[in-house]
Amino acid sequence: MKIVSPPSETVETSQTDLTIEPPLQQIFCGPNKEPAPHYKKTVALLRYKDLSSDQATELYGLEEILSTRLKQYLEQRDRYHLVTSDDYQLASLTINTLGMASEHIEGQIKQLAREKDAQFVITAHIIDKAHIENHGLSTDGWSTKAKKLLAKPFTSKRRGLSTQIAIYDGASGAKLNQFHYFHQTKGSVIFKERDVFINSIENSDYGKIIHTSLSQQANDIDANLACLPLMARVINTEGSKIYLNAGMETRITAGENLKILKNRHISTMGNGKELNQVIEIADALVTDVFPNFSIAVHREPHLSPVSKGDFALTY
Question: Which among 189, 245, 253 is positioned nearest to 58, based on CA atoms?
């Protein structure tokens, strides 16, 4: 299931824009506009990575602010159990845009999801944070232009922030959606080195577009994930009992119905590659829920043996 939100627009903020905390949006699901499921899904939220580290070195530490605030904004939704991974490195975005690293990234996503017991993985990147200059006809001589060029980082009164997030399915490693954001503002956008730690960049005009961008990111993540069912991993089986890695924190309850799914690999003709196919093998009923796991039992004869590594989907 893929829910695509409309692309975000360029937003110009000013000193009169007091939008700091993100507005909480109400999510309705399906054609009948039903409330989002009550489950709390586990999401691995990777730390922001700065792909523009050669720009605006006085903003050293911006990725830490973005990472911290995005986590806080998502926690306000009370729909996700967020686990962070500060040092996990995915394959190069540049390679991935050429379609050369997709299989490698999918493998990394699946591995990370298993390590963190996460249903989804979210990556975030800073693409650009440079000053914005107005370009036009100029009669200045070369020396004057050179002086202005050297002075740009200190005289610019406008600055942008371009970011990108991607949402991945942990079980398959597939990318569910990707969003790009660009905002710009004028005013207090010039900072001394380490200002991000000393004077709180978040209280500046530039800080307002940081919050605007993160608010949109949290809402887009919510719009894509809130309506999806809870998926748990089978961690053990014992007779008719199926042990799942979903405990009380996920809000799963006794008496709920589950579909047990199995990944099946199908060899393709000629090229030696395999296709991954998900098949439904059993219906199950949750009987007991504990802090860190739950137990389900088969409701009827199943098509294939349930084994460790299979998945259970609420419905």
Answer: 189
Burial 170-193 (b: 16+ CB within 10 A, else e): bbebbbbbebebbbbbbebbbbee
Q: Which two tokens stand for residue 260?
A: 């047990």
Low-confidence ranges of the chain (pLDDT < 70): 1-24, 55-58, 91-103, 133-156, 192-200, 265-276
Q: Check residue 307 and give its pLDDT.
A: 93
CA gap 107, 92 in Å, rounded? 14
pLDDT for 115 equals 92
Roughly what angle, to the nearest 10 degrees, separates helices 205-225 and 62-75?
A: 50
User: C-alpha distances in angstroms, 283 versus 37, 41, 300, 313?
Assistant: 20, 21, 7, 10
Which pLDDT does position 95 carry in this prediction?
A: 45
pLDDT for the residue numbered 297:
96
Tracing tokens 């990725």 back to the chain, one arrives at 63
Three-class DSSP category at 253: coil
SS3 106: helix
Q: Map tokens 């059993």 to a residue.
A: 282
